[in-house]
Amino acid sequence: xxxxxxxxxxxxxxxxxxxxxxxxxxxxxxxxxxxxxxxxxxxxxxxxxxxxxxxxxxxxxxxxxxxxxxxxxxxxxxxxxxxxxxxxxxxxxxxxxxxxxxxxxxxxxxxxxxxxxxxxxxxxxxxxxxxxxxxxxxxxxxxxxxxxxxxxxxxxxxxxxxxxxxxxxxxxxxxxxxxxxxxxxxxxxxxxxxxxxxxxxxxxxxxxxxxxxxxxxxxxxxxxxxxxxxxxxxxxxxxxxxxxxxxxxxxxxxxxxxxxxxxxxxxxxxxxxxxxxxxx
Length: 280
Known about the structure:
Blueprint lengths: L6 E3 L22 E2 L31 E5 L4 E5 L10 E7 L8 H9 L5 E5 L3 E2 L4 E2 L4 H21 L2 E11 L1 H12 L6 E5 L2 E2 L16 E8 L5 H16 L3 E8 L6 H18 L1
Parallel strand pairs: 1-3, 5-6, 5-9, 9-10, 10-12, 12-13
Antiparallel strand pairs: 2-11, 3-4, 4-6, 7-8
Helix pairs in contact: 1-5
C-alpha cells in the first residue's frame, strides 16, 4: 500500500559557521564531478505541528512519511511500517539527484525496505529554475553538513537511532555529496552508498583520510549500454582507490535501462543489514 505523504511548515533557528571552520582543500575533492539527474515530485498533505525544536510537536504513525520545512532546509522523514520505539534503528540520510527534492526519499526508501530503516531526506543547497541541486564548494559543503549534523542531533532526541549505523546515501550528484560527507566527516557516519556518481582523477592520494578504516562504501553504477563503459570503469577504479585508503569499499555494475532498478535498492538493504548481522 502506498505510504501517505504529509507536510507543514515549521521553523528552526540555525547556527552559522565561520570561514575558519571550513576544511582546507583536499585532493579528495578532485574525485568528483557533477551529473544531472531528474525525479518527479509528489504532492503532500499536513503532518506535523509547529514546535520549538526541529522535531517538537510531531504527530506520527507507523508506516508514514512526512515533509518538515525548517527555516531554510525542508526535510522529509520516513518511519518504518511497524515502528518499535525500543529498537535502535539504522538511519539512511538520503541526498537526492539534481533537479529533484527531498521528497525523492518517498519513492526510494520503501523499495529498499519498509521496515528495516528510518530515513531522512534533505533538499539540495542550490536552487535553480529547473529545481534543486547540490553545490560542492568548500563553504557550501561545510555549511550543509553543519546543518545536517545539527538536524541529526535533534532527530536522535525524538527517535531511537543507532549512533554507529547512520549511512549517507544518494543518487547522481547526491551520491557525490554523500561520499564527500563520509570522507570529510568520518566520525559522523558509518558509511556511504553512492548510486551513479561520477569520478575524476581517481589516482588522487587519500593520505589525509587515515580515520576511515571503519567506514564502508557501496558504489553502484547502472548502465543500459556499452556507452556507459567509462562511467562503470571509473566506479571500479574509485572503489579500488577507496579500498587502498583502508575503506571497506564495494563497487558493483548493474546492466539495466532503469536508473533506479528494484534489484539495486534491494542490494542496498542487503548491504546495510549484512553489516548489522555481523556486528552482533
